[in-house]
Amino acid sequence: MGDIIEIKDVVKSYKLYDKPLDRLKEAISPTHKMYHKEFIALNGISFNVEKGDALGILGKNGSGKSTLLKMITGVLSPSSGTIQVKGKISAILELGAGFNPEYSGKENVYLNGLMMGFTREEIDNKMNDIIEFADIGEFIEQPVKIYSSGMFARLAFAVSINVDPEILIVDEALAVGDVRFQTKCIDKMKELKSRGTTILFVSHATEQVKRFCNKAVWLKDGVVQASGESSEIADLYEDFMKYNTDDSVNDESLTELDESEISQPDDFIKPNNPDILASITKVELNKDNFRTFDELEVEVEYDVYDDVIDDLLLGVAIYTPDREYIFGPNTHLEKIDIPNIFGRHRVKYIISSLPLLSGTFCIDVGLFNNEGIVCLDYKQEVSNFKITNKYFSEGLIYMQHKWEVIK
C-alpha cells in the first residue's frame, strides 16, 4: 500500500554533563575544551512502515524506543538522518503529557484536539464519543490534577483514539487501566486497524505484539537488531531476554471440552469488583507422577461473571522449575471454542503421549480475551508433576528417530 513512515540512517545523540556548570564552562571555553560525554540513543537506524501496518516495537528499557517515537511525532529532531511521515499522527507517549493539570478533563480534550490541528467545531462533533469512551463520569468536569493514573489513561486514550488518526502511536499505554478498559482499547485499535490506520505499538508484553501486530522491529542498544513478521521477531526477542543470545513444538496436544456442568454450583459467587470478568477456580491433573509417553490431562475449572465474554481463550503452559518455557498452546490458536457465558465451566487439556523425559515440571494456566492480548486471570505454577523412568535416553524430550548403519 506504500510507505507512510520512512526512517533512514537516523542518529540521535545527547551531551551528558556531570554537573550543570560544565555546560556553561564548555560554552565559554576559549580552547573549546569538552566537558561532556556523548550518549548515542539511536545509531543509524533505518526501516519503513507501510500504510495499514500494525508495527510492534520491542526492546529493553534504554534501547531507544521512546526516543524513536518522539522523533516520529516531531517532539525531538534527529541529530542526523531523515524521518518522513505522511499522515496525521495521534500519539500516547506519556500519559497526561500535554494536559494542563488545572484544566478540567473536557477543557483538556479541547486543548489536545487543537494541538492536533482540529477546529473547536470538529472537537465538538467528537466530544460525546470521547466522553463515552473515557467513561470517567462526572470527573470529566473536574481538574485533571485530581485524576488517578487510570483516569489519565482513559482520557488520554479516548482523545487519541477517537480523532480518526492516520497513524496511531501507543507507548505502553495499556499497562495502566483495568481489564474492561484494556479490552475496549484493543477493540477500538482493531477497528482502526481494519479501517487502514497505521499503528505503532510499544509493549514489553511480547504476546500482545505477536497477536495484535503483523510486523515488528527489535531495537537493541540503539540499533535495529531484527525486523520482520511480528511472531518471529517476538520469539527472537524473548529468546534473547531469556538466554542473552524455543521453539518446542509438539503436535500431540489436543484440547477437549467438557461442558456437562454449565449450571452454577452452590459455591459460585460473583465478585463485587465489576472489573473481574472471569477467574480460574480449580486446576487438576490426572496424576502427579508420570512416565515418558503417559497421557497428561489438565482439567481447568473457571467462572465467567459477565453475560458473555467475546473471544475468550484458555492457555495451558508447561515450564521447568527455572521458568524455562517448554510448551504452551491456547484454544484461540488451535481454533477451539470454549464456553464464554455467565457461569462455571470446565475444559480438559490433553497431551496423549507426553514426550518429556525425567524431571519436575510446572503448569501455568491463563484466561484471556482479544486473541490473548488482555489477561483476565493467570495462575503461575498452579500445579506440578514429576516424570521418572528407567534409564533409556538422555535430554529434555524424547524425539522420534531411527538409526541407519551405513557401513
TrEMBL record:
UniProt-listed CDD domains: ABC_KpsT_Wzt, Wzt_C-like
Domain ABC transporter residue range list: 5-246
Lineage: superkingdom: Bacteria
UniProt-listed SMART domains: AAA
Pfam families (alphabetical): ABC_tran, Wzt_C
UniProt-recorded Gene Ontology molecular function terms: ATP binding
Keyword tags: ATP-binding, Nucleotide-binding, Translocase, Transport
Family stated for the protein in its record: Belongs to the ABC transporter superfamily.
PANTHER family documented for this protein: TEICHOIC ACIDS EXPORT ATP-BINDING PROTEIN TAGH
UniProt name for this protein: Teichoic acid transport system ATP-binding protein
Organism: Paenibacillus macquariensis
